[in-house]
Structures are given as structure tokens and as C-alpha cells.
Amino acid sequence: MKKTSIISWVSIFLLLSIGLLSAGIAPPEEGGVLPDITLSVPEMSTQQDYLGIDKNKKTFRISEIKAEVVLIEIFSMYCPYCQKDAPVVNELYNTIAQDEKLKNKIKMIGIGAGNSPFEVDFFQKTYDIHFPLFPDGEFSIHKMLGEVRTPYFIGVKINKDGTHSVFYSNRGAIEDAPKFLNLILSKAGS
Known about the structure:
alpha/beta; Glutaredoxin; five-stranded mixed β-sheet; two-stranded antiparallel ribbon; 6 helices; globular
């Protein structure tokens, strides 16, 4: 076999390999819908009340949260950017929770990519996070979301008929809570 022929076959193999690797699931797109994610109902009644979900059920879907907008943070306890960003995310949560017009309109949750219940609890206590966090120890939700890097934020608008649409999908820390909140309100049409 000629040298150029071997190089051609190797090139074709590499291109096909790269194509197959990149053919995975993409992160949720703005204007699209969120994959069908099922979460366990939190044990704490304050978190159940915050989300407005049926306390008698074992699981719920994100579209069942009683809010017009659900802001999802994909984080990891081991992510230094998530750790550094936690105070700003808390500021965002507190701003929403203290605003009479927004507190029932926007709800926040976090999903710990690859994190066990112990790791999520540790992160929640260490960074004094008051919104519900959910473990994803097997990376199953993380895979459904395109194996996004952390932190990653997804904004979902919940319609009255139970349907929903993604209006925000982006990787990166929140540098300024008020600016981020204004962006979310603008993109959600709120």
C-alpha cells in the first residue's frame, strides 16, 4: 500500500471517529423543550412547598413545578467555578425570594452532576443554599442534557397547560446577579 493511501485511510477513520463522538446529545436549545427529567420529591416540607409539588408523590417532573419560570443550575460539588459562583447564585435566589412579584413566578433548582446525595447535601450546607438541590450520581440527567460543563444554567418557561419551552441555555458563572435576573426576565418575556 502506498504511503498516501495509508494517510487517506487514517484521515477518513479520524474524521468518522470525530463525527461519531460529536454526534452525542446536544445541550437544550433555546426555543426547544427540556428532556423529560424526573426528580425525587424533596424530603423537606419547605422545599416541597417552595416547588408547589404534590407531597404524596415520590417523583415529579420539572414542568410540574408551580411557577412560570424554572431556573435550573447544573453544578458539581467539585467544580471550583460552581463553588466560587455560589454566593452570586444565592444573591440571585434571595433577590427573587424577597420580591413579591417574582417569588411565586420564578423558582430555582440545582442538579448535582455526578454528585451523590451526601455530596449535594455537603455543597448545600457549605454554601448555605436555600433552593432545592438534587443528586445525579449516575450522570443520567447530565447525559440527557448533553453532558454540559458546570456551571450551566437553563431557563424553562412553564405554560399553564403543562407544556414548557427552554428560553435560556448557557454555560458559565453568573457574574452579576441583578444583570442576570434582568436577562432572565427579558428572555422569558416576564
